[in-house]
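## retry 2 of 3
previous attempt timed out at serialization; input unchanged, resubmitting
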Amino acid sequence: MWNRQSYPVVVYPPLLLSLKIDALAQRGINTPKVVNHELSQFNVKTTIQVPHNTYQYLWATYLAALVAIAYRLFLLKGFGLLLVLSFIFLIVVGVQKYLTGRSRVKFIIKTKLKTTTTKSSSIAQQLSGKIITADGVSTAPAGVSEAKFKTYLERYFTVKQNLKFSIPGTTLSYTPDFLIIDESGIIIDVEVDEPYEGKTKTPHHCFDKPQDKNRDEFFRQGNIITIRFAEEQVVKEPLACCQFISGVLERVTGTMDTGRFSKIDRIKPVNRWNTKQAKIMAKKDYRYKYISEN
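## retry succeeded, writing output
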């Protein structure tokens, strides 16, 4: 998991990883056709069946026609008789195929806004009492790029900030940059990783240091997903970041949230950095370039 060489990085807890595998397997077996519709503010899933009496009317009509044709057979000979028999055969076969193929027609109508589904309720039950909870409010300062990114996140998700999670056996705590609270009960810790501190130029979020690994393991054990973006990504591609978060939720819940990000290009990967590379970026004032341009 930590061998990945680029952002975004996703860390799944074991429980949610198993849900992700189940959801993907289920979608692979029977992936529904989705139709975008803004009929209401709810997801609508309906099964439309042809009424049984409709079949009776169809059969009665065709039988009446066959009786009339059969009556005329007495007046037909040779090629005319063969032609009428062939016509009757084709009608019978065609009607049978129609009734077999159209006996059940399904439409799945999905809108942009979500509501609680049976699948979400099932996930919430599995996660109940198994997710660590915040135990205080944090006064840790927010990163320079977080305020603007939050405005994008709040368009699509329920977002919480400044929540503190105490580390057992210590006086220290972790404060997620953002917590995404999904209706399914899934919680995602969204982190914005800068290569170095803005004032001191100290290397930060380096993959050759253990701090972020330990932090992600803490939330992994607490059944919270962690998604790490490079600061450069949330500054340059905030909508693509939101699309990526939505994709993670889809893979775990098995839902298909189409429409909201259909015109957004997929996020471009950004290479992770080690301590040496972070120092070089600090000397070049790398953060200032992409922040000032956006």
